[in-house]
Amino acid sequence: MKKYKLGLLLFLMLIMPGCGLAEQVGNGVSFATDTAAYMQNMREFGQEMDTWATNAVTDPAARQELLDRLTSLKEESAQYANLQVPEYAAELHQTIKGYNETLQQGLDQAITNVEEGKAAFESTGIPDTINKVNELISQINQLIP
Q: pLDDT tens across 84-103, in order?
């Protein structure tokens, strides 16, 4: 069914170049796809972060890898704010942006904790924020045609 919808969407986009509807549909698909990918990255990070934190305590290479991953996630969450958002998804996007602001603060704290040799995610709020973001995945999946 999804392939049928995607095929129909592509067909509409091909026969309606320059049409505002095709552009809106394209923006909607792009937003939903980009958001779903971002959410999946967050989910994967949430599943792996305890292992990375444990390894970072004793292994300098793992510590650097964790720092790199935290920095990458911070950049990715900042870039998410710049997505083109279709009107129907504006509220959802604002919700995710709010979580991203909390996540940014938590990532800053986690980076500081790792650099100081403390428990990486202690008092950062990152696990809770990632859980809240993951709860939105079902809403994002409904936006994907």
A: 888 888 888 888 889 889 99
